[in-house]
Structure formats: C-alpha cells, structure tokens
## 1
Amino acid sequence: MTSSASPTDSDAFATRAIHAGQHFDPTTGAVIPPIYQSSTFVQDGIGGLRGGYEYSRGGNPTRTALETQLAALEGAAHGLSFASGLAAEDALLRAALAPGDHVVLGNDAYGGTYRLINRIHGAWGIRNTPVDLTDLAAVEAAIESGTKILWVETPSNPLMAVSDIAALAALGHRYGILVVVDNTFASPALQQPLALGADVVVHSTTKYLGGHSDVIGGAVVLNDDDLHDKIRFIQFAAGAVSAPMDAFLTARGIKTLDVRMQRHSANAYAIASYLQGHTAVERVYYPGLETHPGHELAARQMSGFGGMISLALSGGEPAARRFAESMRLFQLAESLGGVESLVNYPSEMTHASVRGTELEVAPNIVRLSVGIEDVADLLADVEQALARL
Ligand SMILES: *Cc1c(COP(=O)(O)O)cnc(C)c1O
C-alpha cells in the first residue's frame, strides 16, 4: 500500500516523527494503532477489499503506518519498509540496475552493502568501483558510461568520513546518475539527504530508527513515483517485507528518535573529547571534533554529530583488542544505534567480510556506539578500559 501524506503535516521533525501515520484507531479510540497480526483480509464479495488490503506480503496496515512515518521523516513522497537494511538495498538495486550497469560507492561503505553489490549483484553482471567519496575528482574519474548509481554513506563506517551530499548529488545528476544515500549513521533527525539533492535514502532501521536493539529492519525512501512503483513491485513479488510486530517496534522506536539523537550526540562528544587527549589513543574519528577533517562540512550538512566514534589505539592490534574486551558498560557486540552502548572490533567483527579488499579496516581500530546512559558512567568505563592497556 502506498504511503499517503500525514494529516499532521507539521514542519517540525519531532512532531512528524511521533504523529505521521500513527493515527488512533477509529473503532475503539486506542491511541496507538493496532498491530495487525494477520496474514490475510476478508473480502466483501470477490475483489471487495476493505481499505485495499488483501494479503500481508502485498500490504499490511501496521506496515503502512510505518511506511508513512518513514516517508515523513525524510520529507519524502514514498517510504517502503523491509525485513532488513540489506533487503531494502537489494530491492532498490534490482529496481534501478540491469546487467552491465556500474555502481560507484564509497571505499569505506558498510561491509554488507559492498558484499551485496560486489558478490550478489556482481554475479549478475553489475560492476562496481569503490572510491574515496570525500574526493570529488576521484568520484568523477570513477564514473563510466554505464554508471547508474552513486552510493553515498556519510558519516562512513567505521572511519566516520564525511562526504558532501549536495556536491555529490550535483555531480551525479550531471551524468544522469541516481544518487543514493545510506542515512543509517546520522539518521533523519540529524541529516536530510533528499533536501540536499539526493534521490533515494536507504536505512538499516535496525540501528537508530528502531533504537532499542530489538528488531531488524530496513527502509527505502524516495520521491520518484516510477522508481517507487518498481521497488514496491519487487517488495511484493520477492517478499522481503517487515512483519507486523517488527513494523510496530520500529514505529515505536522512531517516536523518540529526536530526543535520543540529541543525547547520543552529547554523550559521544564528551567521550570523543576525552579520548582525544589520552596518550594511549593515536587518533579519534568523530565529526564533532574540530580536528576531524570533515568537521566543517558536517557542521553545515548535519544538525548534530551523532553517536558513533572510532578510535585508533597507539598500541596497535593488541591494545585495540584489550581495550574492546576490557569494557564493561559498553558491551562487546556488532550493530549500533541502540540506547545501550556497544563496542565493536571492526576488523574481525562487523568488517570481517571485507578483509583483504580495499575496504579492509586497520587492526588498531575500535568502534564505539555511544548509547544514552549517564555520561559519567560511560566516561568511567572508557577510563578503566584505557587504564588496562
Ligand atoms: C547495519 C547497516 C546496514 C545493513 O542493515 P541490516 O539491517 O543489518 O540488514 C546497512 N548500512 C549501514 C550503514 C548499516 O550500519
């Protein structure tokens, strides 16, 4: 079912995040729309659909509520919700590409995105060139006659490189290329890629949108009606849809996105500032620090710097492993964007699949997903882990 504009057409992000698509139930007055845990829908005579629903792979009211909310978050006409971020990306790639086409993507793209484009779509004749997205001349040089997608991720994972969405969109459009932004790390609370000129936004809603590490999901958000229809058809025909309970959990998480991102950003800034002054730390990757090469651009393009920090330990791989394994409040786990803080050792965890490729992550790098716990407790944990090196 296609998303429709919310009657709550507030310009304010926090209001839209809570109200778009989330209308009270007209039959009972329940403030929260019900979870329609139903695979199929009764027809009033053959083909007599109530509200357009027929079978939940094609559409389910709980998913529609989330899809309307997702579109509103990015100020877009259409939102589509999938079973995972990669399922969302896969549907978009299949809708936009044909064998022989070429994709330009960041050389520090999310490992799973690279694996999907390189190995799955690569096997069907899609070619790709990873490139440094902060270098516009390098991006332009990577464009070929068959290039159909410029895939942007900013800030990037795990090195938090910031690339210029407006400039990349303008460059891509000069060559007639679809410009896609993976907005997972910033979230729409901090960054609005469509307003900056991008064509499509994708999300792993597993991360900040869901926000509570309890559901896997993904989204595609866009304005173009034809491309939307193609992706909608793939969603229906291939079936990687989000289940009603998952859609409900994601919609519930989104309602607090705005306040969570403010707290994630404040906590991360405090921790990044502390790390920067520590002798055991060789380098801190956080766009909120003035020393970060993308700081000015991030300040212009984002309304906050987010909750993700990476750091390079002076003591190399042994120090990085020891630091990651010594943390207590920060739990050692993949993923990010939840209310609880996590620590990840990319080269053997999240980025193990890109070892030996251009996207390999150095063994002295540790990534932190800073949660919304009390900042003094988080700082104390960082301090005690550094003291063990
Ligand atoms: C996690 C992640 C994905 C993949 O999403 P899943 O929900 O795990 O399938 C894509 N992009 C980024 C930036 C991510 O962090």
Note: Residues 259-387 form a domain with the Aspartate Aminotransferase, domain 1 fold (CATH 3.90.1150.10).
## 2
Amino acid sequence: MNEQVNRREFVKTGAAAVAATGMSVCATARADVGKLALLGGAPVMTRAEAEGFLGLFKWPIVNEAMRKANDRVLCDCKMSGTDIADEFEKKFAAWNGTKYASSAPNGTASLVAAFYAVGLGPGDELICPSITYWASCLGAIHLGASVVFADVDPKTLTLDPKSFEAHITPRTKAVVPVHVYGQPCDMDPIMAIARKHGIKVVEDVSHAQGGLYKGRKLGTIGDCGAMSLMTGKSFAIGEGGMFVTDDKELYRRVVRWGQYERIARTFSPDEFARTKNLPFGGVKNRLNQCSAAIGIEQLKKYDSECAEIEKAMRYYHAGIADVKGISMIYPEWEKSNKAGWYYSRAIYNPEAFGGVTVKTFVRALNSEVGLNRFDVGCNFPLHLSSIFDDEDIFGNGRPPSRRFMPANVSPAAETGRLPVAESVLPRVMGDPSFKHFDKPKIDRYIEAVHKVAANIDALREWEKKNDKAS
Ligand SMILES: *Cc1c(COP(=O)(O)O)cnc(C)c1O
C-alpha cells in the first residue's frame, strides 16, 4: 500500500540527489560505454586508482580519541576490570533507549545469556530464521534447547512472520528475529504472533545497532536485544557484545548467568547467600576494557557516521535505480532505516539480465572497479547444517536438537523445507560498503554497474563460453 508510495518517494529523492550533482540518471546516456574489462576492455578504474579509494571503505573509522582511550586503559593497566565497562554500559543503555545494558566479550556470549534470561532450557524450542550467522541461535544448544528454523522473506531476507507462526509448537519458548544485513525485521506482526502464543522475543541486533523500525530503536521492541560489537560490525569496538532490555528481571538473569562481579550489587545478600556469587552459566562474560573505552568514544560519533553512510548508500542506489534487475533492500515503513548498512545486500534478478548469473555479473563488476567491492550471496541456510540434527556433539547418542526431546519429536522435521532460504543465494548481490559520502568516487561504482548492465549481451555470450561454474 504505502510501500509503493515510499519506493516512488525514494526513487524521486534519490534522482534529485543525483540530478543535484549534474549527473545523468538516464541509462541510455551511458549506453555508449566501452567494452567490458572482463572481455579485455578498459576498466572504469584501474587497480591503482581503486587502491586510492581504500579510505572510502575502511571500517571502523578510528579517531584520535579512540586511540587515546585505548592507550589510557593500557597505561592504567585496566584491561581487566569493570569500571570502564560499567560506564560504557550506562552510556550504551542511554543511547539505545533501554533501562539496562550488559556487556559481554562477544555477541555470541550475549545471545546465549539472553536465551538464558528468557528462560530457554532443556526441551524448549527456539525459532530462528535460516539465513543468518550461526551465533544467532547455535548457543541455545548449551542450554539444552533445540532450534527450529523458519524461512525468510525473498525481498528483504529477514524472518518471514508467516513462516515464524507456521513453525510454532507447544514447545516454542523464544524467537530470535535477526535484523539481518541492517534491514529491520517486520516487528509488528512478529510481536503480535509472539504475544499471542506467549513466546519471548530476543532481537539479534548484530547487523543493525542504532537502526529504527517505525521510530523505535532496534533491540527495544522485543523482550530484549543482544548483539555483536565486533570489529567488522556497524558498531565496532574490537571484540564485544551487548545485551539490552527494559525488563529488570531479564537483566538480573543475564548478570546471574555470567557477570560474577556484578552479582553482589544486583542481588541482595539473601539471594546469593547459598550459591555465593557464582555465575549460573559457569561462564565469565566480562568485556575487555580496551574495547569498552573504544566503545565510549564510538558512541560519540556513531550516529553521525551512520547518517553519512545512509546518504552514501542511498545516493549509490538512486544512481543505479534505473538498472532493472537490482533491487535495493530498504525498510519501506516511515521512520525506519538501516543505520550502518552493515554487509549491504541487494536482490539480483537473473531473469532481468537474460539469465546471466549473479556470479558472472559480479565478476564483471569487480573487473571494472579494480578491487573486489561487489560480492555474491549471503549466509548459507543454517538448517542445512548437520550440526543440529545429525552430529552427536555431546556424546550421549543424540544430536543437539533431540537431546532433551521426547522420542517422537524432531525439530529438524518441524523445520522441513524452507523454499526461500534454500533458493535465494543466487539472487543476492553484495553492494560496495561506502562509509563516506564522496559523490565523485561513488559515481565511478555507479558507472561500473551501468556499464555491465549495458553490455549484458556480450557478458551472456562470455558466460556461455566460460562454464558457469568457473
Ligand atoms: C557476528 C554475529 C553474531 C555473533 O557475534 P560475535 O561478536 O561474532 O560473537 C551474532 N549474530 C549475528 C547475526 C552476527 O552477525
């Protein structure tokens, strides 16, 4: 409905942005481009030129303040400890708009703590989209829980609410919507379904820190959020993870799971008189304070960096909007965005390019731009891994998914076939990850896309001669 309007609006504003630079958005104006570099023509940019563009992509943007903050931790020998991490958590919670935040050494640890917090345990099922990084769900097996996978939406690659609902069983305890590749999940239907069935919602915000869904920060919509703050992610502090929630009880359980130094101040002496302040998870989830100090500095500049990335990525997509067959993934709802556009993906439609595979298309693109700035595919469908239902990981003769299940229950069978997840990879293309709004440089990448699209017939011939698998 107003999806249509928004897309038109986007193309319009995008085209205006392009027009403002005096650049033409007309495809035919660029149809006289030369022979493809892959076929021996001159590339849009040489490798040497492309190397001069490295700053456009470098991430994170490390400033003097971050270096100094890191140095101070080292000089004060405070790499271990909790004082700086406490400060980071407070500031992160305030920025994120949640009452509580609890850090961890990585996102994987944060997610396991979150699963414990919402009560996931032996014999329970966690529903996870099949297209995501394994840490979105795999840690649940430590808790004795099983993972049931749901399918994703072919246009956005995020959890398909209908598939989520179809995979609910009496054992479903939690769902982990992943704002995958920066795209917010459609949280309204997901929350409605979860509430109807009494299912806890743990948002995996590893790809979308600071992103918005209908004006609400990601990670504040479900019962809680958990995320990676690893170097490559949008909010990058080195190695790190963060759990966020408004629910005091969930926060207390995360502390109880692996924050042994915070137990004494989070619980009354009565509450740990018998257990002492031992962590229930048997894990130590303390964040390295160099990372915490870097995170405090990152918070000061992250929003403005995301705003610049947003401009750069939208400018790029507006520049290629006239190329039929490549669709940007972007939230169509009001007051929604992709924050840092982590690992930005687009949907590639081979039919629009006479059957040329995404692999060949991207290969031709990369030949034009000197370095591999475009790529193909996305995370492989997790439900096809044998780890969940075939491997006897814990040595008790049963795979993780059936470890605590009655004999007649098979989460792998419940997952079944997931048609989109199993077929979508050849339709996914990776965008160049622009971190700066540098129009003349971005224009070169736009030019490369137009050049390859304009030479699609020659490329199809090339692909026929060179085995598609090569
Ligand atoms: C990176 C990532 C994680 C795990 O975070 P680490 O910091 O690498 O442990 C979890 N979920 C998703 C979707 C991720 O991409």
Note: Residues 106-108, 111, 132-133, 135-136, 178, 204, 206-207, 228, 230, 241 surround pyridoxal-5'-phosphate (CB under 6 Å).
